[in-house]
């Protein structure tokens, strides 16, 4: 949630707000919580999790994916191989 907060603030938007959308099986082993993330009443993302904190973290990741228009199926950039200490990537 920290990264999402920073990205929103750098773009002049309000801090994210988490809201519990629904929960099921709260008193069982198979509990599921769905959390939505909003900024200034605008929906940013949502996700489910076994706890509220897990659902909140996953919802923040979903919001970041939506903001940057990325997809989980895209290939990852191997920054660990591209970056060397003291060198910039664009050189």
Automatic annotation (TrEMBL):
Keywords: Mitochondrion, Ribonucleoprotein, Ribosomal protein, Transit peptide. Residues 1-82 form the Large ribosomal subunit protein mL44 dsRNA binding domain. It is found in: Mitochondrion. CDD domains: DSRM_MRPL44 (cd19874). It comes from the Eukaryota. Transmembrane segments: none annotated. GO terms for molecular function: double-stranded RNA binding. One of its GO terms (cellular component) is ribosome. Pfam families: DSRM_MRPL44. InterPro entries: Ribosomal_mL44_DSRM_metazoa (IPR044444). Belongs to the ribonuclease III family. Mitochondrion-specific ribosomal protein mL44 subfamily. This is Large ribosomal subunit protein mL44. It comes from Rotaria magnacalcarata. The lineage of its organism: Eukaryota, Metazoa, Spiralia, Gnathifera, Rotifera.
